[in-house]
Design brief:
By secondary structure, the protein is an alpha/beta fold. The chain is built from 14 helices and eleven strands. The longest helix has 35 residues. It starts with a helix and ends with a helix. The mean pLDDT is 97. The chain binds pyridoxal-5'-phosphate (PLP). Pyridoxal-5'-phosphate binds next to helix 5.
């Protein structure tokens, strides 16, 4: 493609995106397509000769766009949000255009040094202690894997990397922990049987006494506790594991404490919503995802460690072809994670944080939490519904109820309720299971969701419940 054509289409696409941001609410949140439908419109073989961009863009509009789910839709209440924002998109255009591969300081000094500064900004924004150092990872799953590997090495005096896995190393997390923890436990070689799932209290937060009991039992059986993963903001119900008692137990037995705050971490930017971070000073590692709630488009996960040397000793490699004369004076982030090659992700953080300011992000968080609080109050005032967990931050877990109906029947009705709500095309919600019961989740967090969108969602939910 020649540069003039690139320029012309570049302008066109920015215009298209600006229109998209303005009108994304007019699309159905999820597309009414059937499995395989998009695939059937795509040719079996690649074109032999190049095609022009007008044709490619036409097919984008006619084939791809109708099959997209619109995560930036103001009616997005499913899972957790994956917000982008105009400044973040602008930075991503630059990142793609620069095409830098930021594995070492020398391969883009500005990328490394901006990342270092952005991690300090984020650390201070969410109230992590100043002794922690950060690095950007692709996802929380990867960051947690790094934590598990570091914990494994520390627990075995850095011998596992040399000799292979020791038997009996164990990891602890609550029954509500995210699936990425078990995945990390499998990949890091602990084995699924050495992940102990600790009981939770009525609010689905880890019970510290049950944790202590599991640790003591395991030690008596000759096992070696290596890592506790505490969650701030579980995926099912936003439960907050109590860090103070958990960290005291970890200190007592010399166990690595990793904190998974993938979604909730962003709430800590607002001092009024930071209560759940109490005790975080004692953690060994911490992860949260700016790519969820913090207006920074996927992917961008912030991983913080107390002791970077442990991370480096666990993961750094030093082949001749990567050595540089600056190595002693600089950070080479390739040694701070699993992959070698790295995207320039710090640029979008810089654009987002400067564009909105800390206050702009905090205000958005506060607004979303206020809306979730309102929604929970509407539910509580309506006897057809019940909350299945306390409303925390921006997540409301609830179901339709009717006295005298057996649980299976209620599950079936609530499944139907969710399908009806989502078929509206105006809102999209997802579900979970709490205490064995089918549970609808309303997660407020899309940047453009307003009070009006919330009221519309409530109306749709209420009408669908009336028609059950
Ligand atoms: C979203 C989430 C994850 C996984 O995040 P990825 O960045 O997609 O790997 C892990 N833990 C919690 C608590 C989450 O909310």
């Amino acid at each position: 493609m020649d540069n003039d054509t690139f320029r012309r289409h570049g302008h066109q696409l920015v215009d298209w995106l600006a229109d998209y941001f303005e009108h994304v609410g007019d699309y159905p949140v999820t597309p009414p397509v059937t499995p395989g439908e998009i695939l059937s419109h795509l040719p079996d073989t690649p074109p032999r000769d190049g095609e022009d961009m007008d044709t490619i863009l036409r097919d984008y509009r006619e084939i791809i766009l109708p099959g997209m789910s619109h995560w930036q839709h103001p009616g997005w209440f499913a899972y957790f949000p994956a917000n982008n924002s105009p400044p973040s998109v602008l930075a991503e255009i630059l990142t793609a255009g620069l095409g830098a591969q930021c594995m070492s300081w020398i391969t883009s000094p500005a990328a490394t040094e901006l990342e270092e500064r952005m991690m300090e900004w984020l650390r201070d924004m969410i109230g992590l202690p100043a002794h922690m150092s950060g690095v950007i990872q692709d996802t929380a799953s990867t960051a947690t894997l790094c934590a598990l590997l570091s914990a494994r090495e520390r627990a075995t005096d850095f011998t596992t990397n040399d000799r292979g896995m020791h038997a009996g190393l164990t990891v602890y997390a609550s029954t509500q922990t995210h699936s990425s923890i078990e995945k990390g436990v499998r990949i890091a070689g602990f084995g699924k049987h050495h992940l102990r799932l600790v009981a939770v209290d009525d609010a689905y937060a880890m019970n510290p006494e049950a944790l202590r009991k599991a640790i003591v039992e395991d030690m008596e059986r000759g096992k070696k506790p290596a890592c506790v993963v505490a969650t701030l903001g579980t995926t099912s119900s936003m439960a907050m594991d109590p860090l103070e008692p958990i960290s005291a137990i970890c200190r007592e037995y010399g166990i690595w404490l990793h904190v998974d705050a993938a979604f909730a971490g962003t709430a800590a930017i607002h001092p009024g919503h930071r209560w759940f971070m109490k005790g975080v000073e004692a953690c060994d590692s911490f992860v949260f995802n700016p790519h969820k709630w913090m207006l920074t488009n996927f992917d961008c996960s912030a991983y913080f460690v107390r002791d970077p040397d442990t991370l480096l000793q666990t993961l750094s490699m030093d082949p001749e072809y990567l050595k540089t004369s600056a190595d002693k004076q600089v950070k080479n982030y390739r040694d701070w994670g699993i992959q070698l090659g790295r995207r320039f992700r710090a640029l979008k953080l810089w654009f987002v944080i400067r564009s909105y300011g800390v206050r702009g992000i905090a205000d958005m968080v506060d607004r979303h939490i206020g809306m979730a609080r309102d929604f929970a109050a509407w539910l509580e005032a309506d006897e057809r519904f019940e909350l299945l967990a306390p409303r925390q931050l921006s997540l409301v877990c609830f179901r339709y109820k009717q006295d005298q109906l057996p649980e299976e029947e209620l599950d079936r009705l609530n499944r139907r309720l969710l399908d009806t709500i989502n078929a509206s095309g105006k809102v999209f919600m997802s579900h979970t299971q709490l205490g064995g019961r089918f549970c609808l989740r309303l997660s407020v967090g899309q940047a453009t969701t307003s009070e009006e969108h919330l009221q519309q969602a409530w109306q749709i939910i209420s009408e669908a419940a009336g028609a059950l």
